[in-house]
């Protein structure tokens, strides 16, 4: 008995791709943009560029002593929520691990107090302090918001929603890791005479949940190599949290620039209001600039190659009607209009009926199929069929050809019905009513 193989048809698992999916992206006018920077990119550029704009400030102190202080414009933006979100979005989380591994490699080569101190300074300054600074900036912005509004509004602004997400993550995930870092540092400081790190601001920032007594704890592990491993684990957790915030920040930038509530739209300082207005207006120039790609393609296809566009072809749709219970028949006239949502331009999509139709309550009770299997034509040859002799009970005396013809002729036919196949229940798996597999 031949063995049955369960072979799945390839089109069921690999449907392939249509011509639209195989189109070259370079021919898409929206892919290649002359200026593809978004709002986050421009905010980050302004923040970095402001570091290069220096000024001198003339100051007279309480004792009437005058002196000049050199500074830059970055201080004008470092407490602004949109710029903080831009910094978070551009934070190099991937570089944290690579730089830590380099410092760890230096410490493993030479177990000196200087190399151990660099590990602690890097973890504290590059992974822990950014979260502290960001939350402190959000707190300052929140205070300014409420001072501008006079009282907390009914709906919390989006930038404060991000601040609350940051607070929840710190409280639920990073509080224990920071305490562990402090205890390891205290042990290493007494062992290797490391420089001081001020952890008291974290006590004042209550979301970390650190008590003053936590600042004097010491890890029980006396092995410096074990300290380095624990620092790597702590850094990895901070890196994961910063990566989550980095991916989350861009969604809040637009609302930080233009809050939903009118009362919060007046909170921007004058210099920030001018800058944000410029960035909003610049988007119109950017859109005009990026349209040059479309104009270039249209010039190339229409003017250079002289390719003519195909005539517009109306869309088609199949409609299914269902009669109301109180109607027996209903006439739907020709050119009857049917609305189908809106197109990309925001205009209504209208379909019209090609022919009139009379609707009734007739329904399809069952689906059946009938298949006639035709066989291709062949060349055949007559055969002599011997018949029983005539006698009682057998009166047939006919042969297919006269007995005196020895060379029987050939005959041909085009096709014939080889088999008839029928499915009593066409909409089933086996044609007899079985359910289709899931």
Summary, kept brief:
This protein is of the alpha+beta class.
Please describe what this structure looks like.
The protein is an alpha+beta fold. Strand 4 (about 335-340) and strand 5 (about 350) form a beta hairpin. The protein has helices at about 10-15, 40-50, 80-90, 95-110, 115-150, 160-190, 200-205, 225-250, 250-255, 270-305; strands spanning about 55-60, 65-70, 330, 335-340, 350, 355-360, 370-380, 410-425. Helix content is about 45%, strand content about 15%. The protein contains 10 helices and 8 strands. The strands form 4 sheets. The protein has a two-stranded antiparallel sheet. Strands 3-6 form a two-stranded antiparallel sheet. Helix 3 (about 80-90) runs antiparallel to helix 9 (about 250-255) and helix 4 runs antiparallel to helix 8 (about 225-250).
Features:
14% strand; 8 strands; 438 residues; two-stranded antiparallel ribbon
- Classify the beta-strand content into a percent band: 5-15%
Q: For this entry, what is the oligomeric state of its chains? A: single chain
Arithmetic mean pLDDT:
80
Percent helix = 40-55%
* Terminal Cα span: 30 Å
General form: elongated
The rounded Rg comes to 41 Å
Ordered list of secondary-structure elements with their pairings:
Elements: H1 10-13, H2 39-50, E1 54-60, E2 66-72, H3 81-89, H4 93-109, H5 113-149, H6 158-192, H7 200-204, H8 224-248, H9 250-257, H10 270-304, E3 329-332, E4 337-342, E5 348-352, E6 357-360, E7 369-381, E8 410-423
Antiparallel strand pairs: 1-2, 3-6, 4-5, 7-8
Helix pairs in contact: 2-3, 3-9, 4-5, 4-8, 5-6, 5-8, 6-8
């Amino acid at each position: 008995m031949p063995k049955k193989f369960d072979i799945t048809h390839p089109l069921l698992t690999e449907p392939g791709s249509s011509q639209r999916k195989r189109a070259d992206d370079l021919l898409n006018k929206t892919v290649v943009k002359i200026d593809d920077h978004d709002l986050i990119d421009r905010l980050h550029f302004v923040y970095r560029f402001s570091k290069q704009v220096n000024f001198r400030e003339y100051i007279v102190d309480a004792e009437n002593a005058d002196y000049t202080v050199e500074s830059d414009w970055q201080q004008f933006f470092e407490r602004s929520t949109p710029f903080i979100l831009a910094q978070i979005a551009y934070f190099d989380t991937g570089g944290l691990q690579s730089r830590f591994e380099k410092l760890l490699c230096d410490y493993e080569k030479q177990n000196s107090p200087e190399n151990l101190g660099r590990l602690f300074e890097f973890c504290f300054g590059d992974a822990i302090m950014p979260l502290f600074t960001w939350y402190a900036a959000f707190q300052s912005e929140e205070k300014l918001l409420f001072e501008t509004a006079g009282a907390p509004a009914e709906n919390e602004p989006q930038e404060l929603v991000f601040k609350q997400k940051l607070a929840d993550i710190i409280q639920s995930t990073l509080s224990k890791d920071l305490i562990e870092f402090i205890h390891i540092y205290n042990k290493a400081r007494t062992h290797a005479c490391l420089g001081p790190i001020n952890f008291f601001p974290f006590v004042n920032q209550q979301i970390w949940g650190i008590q003053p007594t936590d600042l004097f704890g010491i890890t029980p592990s006396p092995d410096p190599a074990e300290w380095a491993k624990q620092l790597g684990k702590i850094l990895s957790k901070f890196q994961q949290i910063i990566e989550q915030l980095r991916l989350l920040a861009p969604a809040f930038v637009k609302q930080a620039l233009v809050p939903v509530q009118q009362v919060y739209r007046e909170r921007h300082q004058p210099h920030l209001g001018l800058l944000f207005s410029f960035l909003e207006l610049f988007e119109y120039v950017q859109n005009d600039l990026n349209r040059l790609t479309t104009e270039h393609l249209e010039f190339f296809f229409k003017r250079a190659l002289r390719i003519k566009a195909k005539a517009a072809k109306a869309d088609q749709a199949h409609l299914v009607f269902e009669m109301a219970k109180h109607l027996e028949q209903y006439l739907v006239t020709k050119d009857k209009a049917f609305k189908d949502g809106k197109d990309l331009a925001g205009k209504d999509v209208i379909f019209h009926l090609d022919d009139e139709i009379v609707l009734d309550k007739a329904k399809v009770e069952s689906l059946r199929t009938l298949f006639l299997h035709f066989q291709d034509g062949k060349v055949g040859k007559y055969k002599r069929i011997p018949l029983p002799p005539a006698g009682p009970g057998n009166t047939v005396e006919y042969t297919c050809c006269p007995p005196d013809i020895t060379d029987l002729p050939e005959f041909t036919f085009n096709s014939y019905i080889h088999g008839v196949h029928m499915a009593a229940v066409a909409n089933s798996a086996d044609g007899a009513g079985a359910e289709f597999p899931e």
